[in-house]
Specification:
- By secondary structure, the chain is mostly helical.
- The protein has 2 domains: 97 residues; 166 residues, no CATH class.
- The protein is 54% helix and 2% strand.
- The chain has 12 helices and 2 strands, in the order H-H-H-H-H-H-H-H-H-H-E-E-H-H.
- Helix 6 runs antiparallel to helix 11 and helix 8 crosses helix 10.
């Protein structure tokens, strides 16, 4: 087969398998999903490959069989294993390790994500400190931040964080010696790598849970709404949420008063029903 599908263009092994099969069957009509099951030694389970594409867990034995069917070389095989581990990780530590492995193996990791963006989104407190510096007058002594930040972060981590922000050009010292942001806000923008942002958002969701469980005098709004919608109405709601995000960024940018606090906003909209037929 003329390998037009480059495994290093993917971070999700299921998408890679799907596109590989679709491309190869064009040149090799016998390479159907059913034939893949046969090659895997699962002639009695003809739906296995389709089930994998829909999310079925893949065992280490089957991972190795896929590697053989795909004729992956040693480096490609390591990358494939890391993608599977990333997808099937049971906790964030394993997911983070798998993502690091992908970056280590990838011949041009900058194609996966910008290393600066990875450093910034790897820990939730980098973005929190970025915002806090707009509220508090902080010099090289970060103890006032360490005393007030929620949840608590060690002084060593805050020191490393501000060094990162300086290196990225996101903060600089003003004439009074205080570190201040160089821009109003940050979005993932061109660095919107699915896995990178997913890891960052998972950390943010944990912050929401901790804020919900921790008594606080600070203002907070925790609201949940469950509803049924048509596809058309869902599209309208999604558009409204995107419009709200734009409006929120505009409010931040246009705020001419001195900030006196830092807020964290998460928006969650997901379905409680799997697509029909899954």
């Amino acid at each position: 087969m003329n390998k037009e599908i480059n495994i290093f263009q993917f971070t999700h092994f299921r998408k890679y398998l799907e596109q590989y099969q679709e491309q190869r069957v064009l040149e090799e009509p016998s390479f159907t999903r059913t034939e893949i099951c046969n090659l895997l030694g699962l002639s009695k389970s003809r739906s296995y490959f389709a089930d994998v594409l829909r999310g079925k867990k893949v065992s280490p034995r089957m991972v190795q069989k896929f590697i053989e069917i795909l004729s992956l070389n040693k480096k490609e095989a390591q990358y494939f294993k890391a993608m599977v581990q990333l997808d099937q990780a049971k906790n964030e530590q394993v997911r983070s390790q798998a993502m690091e492995e992908l970056l280590h193996i990838h011949p041009t990791p900058e194609h996966l994500l910008n290393s600066d963006a990875y450093d910034y989104y790897a820990k939730w407190y980098h973005s929190a400190l970025f915002a806090i510096l707009d509220v508090l007058d902080i010099n090289d002594d970060l103890r006032p931040v360490q005393k007030r930040i929620f949840p608590k972060v060690s002084l060593g981590k805050l020191t490393s964080s501000i060094q990162l922000l300086i290196r990225l050009g996101l903060v600089r010292q003003n004439d009074d010696g205080f570190y201040k942001p160089t821009k109003d806000s940050i979005s993932s923008g061109p660095y919107n790598n699915d896995e990178l942002i997913r890891q960052y958002q998972l950390q943010c969701f944990e912050l929401s849970k901790e804020a919900l469980l921790t008594p606080s005098k600070n203002p907070h709004i925790m609201s949940t709404l469950v509803f049924s919608l048509s596809k058309e109405a869902y599209q309208k709601m999604e558009a409204e949420l995107q419009a709200f995000k734009k409006a929120a960024r505009r409010i931040v940018a246009e705020d001419s008063n001195k900030p006196d606090s830092v807020y964290h906003l998460n928006l969650h909209l997901f379905s409680n029903l799997e697509p029909e037929g899954k």
